[in-house]
Amino acid sequence: MTEQQPSPPALEQALHAARALVLADLTADGIAEAEVVSLVEDAVSHRRWWVEQWPDGVSFLAGLVAQDVQDALLDRYGRWPACPVCPGPERHALDVEPELGPDPHWVCGRTATEVAPVGELGRA
Question: Model-level pTM?
Fold first, then answer.
């Protein structure tokens, strides 16, 4: 069975949705500055190529873009998003779960507490 490419409008819609969700979370944390938005654009561009190679992964785009941005921010800005569940001076970042799957959520990896769906940190 051959994989079918998502139609161009469906692919673009999924990429734009992933971008919007991650930007909403960055905005909720007050760090959606131009340089950070560029990191989001880079992640979306990379994932465009990725989903063209593996079309069945289109529903995983939001979580993957969030993880890509999280990784890029670690090098430049530190841990993001900071876990609001665990108190103390040693803050850690939330994880995206599932790592490769639809319906991604921000989760505290230490307590297994679901904090918010990707894109809804501002509502948590």
Answer: 0.90
